[in-house]
Amino acid sequence: MAIKTYDAVIIGSGAGGAPIANELVKAGKTVLVLEKGPLFQPQYLSESGVSDFRRDELYATGPEKRITLDVANKGESYYSSHVEPDLNDEPHIYRHGEEGAEIDKATLEGYTAQVVGGGTQLYGAVSLRFSEDDFKLKSYNENRGYNLVGDPNGDVDREVRDWPISYADMEPYYAKAEDKIGINGTHENQSKPFTSGSKYQKPLAPNPISEYAKKGMEAKGMEWYRTPLAVITEDHAPSSRKTGNVKTSYVNRYGDPMGYKSNTWVSLLAPIKDEDNFEIRCNCTVVQLKSRNTKVEEIVYFDESGDVKTVKGKVVVVACSAIESTRLLMLSADMDQSGFGKLVTQNGTNDLLGKYFLTHCFGGAEGIVPGRFDKSISLDSDYASDFAATRDFMKKNGLWAGAAIYNNTSDQALPISLARSHASQDIDTIWKGFDKNWPESNMKPGVGDQMSNWINGNFGNRLSVSFMANQVPLTRIIHTLYI
C-alpha cells in the first residue's frame, strides 16, 4: 500500500503547529496534524453538549502520585492533570549543580500538555508582545554605555544575538494574530507601537483584589494597561465563538470547558476541521523522522491502537514543544546515525541541537492583603506595566534586557490548588503542597482542623505580582536524552 503524501505534515497542535496548519489549509494545501494527546471538546462543540474536560479541580489535577524514578526527589508527591505526561512514565529530568556534583530531579516544569491545543489549553493566557528592544538586544548592549549587574562571566556580550527581523516587521503579524486568536486587553500605555491599530476585545471589569496592584503601580510611577489575555469577552467572528459568563478561574490553568480561552483548537483548528484538505489524527505518537538526501520526508508514528504507521510530507513541521521536539530529533538521529544523524550534526561539525534552551523567565512576589476576595471570579491577570522594559529602568538597574510586570489575579483562587501549590517551585504547578512542612506553622498539611484553619487564614487574600523577562541564551543550558 502506497504511503500517503501531504503538502505538509505538522507534528503538534499547539502554539507552534496550529497557526501554520490554519494558514496552509486556507491557502489550499493538504495538511495533516499529528497530535500525541486526545481531542477534548468544549461543550459548544460537543455532540452531547457536555465538555470532555474535567471541571472539578480535584479531578482535573488527578490523585496524589509518588515519584518512583531513581532521582534525588524519589518518593516526593506530585499532581498532574489529565493532559500532562506522567512523570514516572515520561520523565523530564532537571540536572543542576556544580560539575561533578550534579543533582537530578524529576520535574513537571516545561508546560508540556498532551492534548489537542497543547500548552495553550492550560496556560493562563497572558499574551504580551515583545518590545522593540527585545528584537535587537545585541545591538542595544553593544551601545548601552553602562556596566551590567550580575554577569561576571560576560555571558551577555558573548551570547546575545539580534533577531534577523525587527518589531516593525512583526507588528502587522501581531495584529493579525491578536484578531484571529481572540485577545482582550488595552494598548494604551504599552511601550510597543500599535501601528496596525488595536485588535483587542474589551477587557472585563477587574477583580477587586487587583486594585492593590493598580495602586501599587501608580504609587511607583508605573503606567499600567489591562493585561492582554487570550480569552474572548465578545463574540469572535474568526472562530464563530459566542461569549457568555467567562469570568471564572476555571479558564486558567485548566482546560476551559466553555471554549472562551483562545486555545489553538477553538481559535485556529476547529474553524478548519471540516475542510477537505485538513486532517488531524489524535492519540498518535511520532517516534522517528526519516530523511532522504538532505530532506525529511517520512514520519513514523504509533496510532491510537498502537500500530506503526508512516506518512510523507513535502514539508515536515516539528512543533511539539521545545523539549519534545528536541527529543524527537535526537531519537531520530540515534536510530539512523549514518543518515539522519549526520544531517542533524552536519556530518559531525555542528553540536548545537539541544543547546541554548530557553523558556519563560519568570519571577515575582506574593503577599497577603486585607480582606477576603472571591478570586474564583477572575481571569489570570488584570493589570500590567512596561515600566521595567524602559531603557531608563535598565540603565538604572544595570540590566541587559527589560521585562513586563503584571499581577496574577487568579493564583491559588481555588482551595485545593491553594493547598497543593503552597511552597511549590512554581506558582503555575500543582506540586508538593501536601507533602512539605509549612514553615508558618511547622506542621504537615492536610491534617484535620489544622488544614481548615490554614486555608481559612490564607484563602482569598493572596495577591502575586510577576515579571516575564528575557533569558540569556547559553550553550551550557541544554536538552539531552536521559539514559
TrEMBL record:
It comes from the Bacteria. InterPro entries: FAD/NAD-bd_sf, GMC_OxRdtase_N, P2Ox-like. Keywords: FAD, Flavoprotein, Oxidoreductase. Gene3D superfamilies: FAD/NAD(P)-binding domain. One of its GO terms (molecular function) is flavin adenine dinucleotide binding. It holds the Pfam family GMC_oxred_N. The keyword Transport does not apply. Its cofactor is FAD. Residues 114-333 form the Glucose-methanol-choline oxidoreductase N-terminal domain. The keyword Cell division does not apply. PANTHER family: PYRANOSE 2-OXIDASE. Belongs to the GMC oxidoreductase family. This is Gluconate dehydrogenase. The lineage of its organism: Bacteria, Pseudomonadati, Bacteroidota, Cytophagia, Cytophagales.
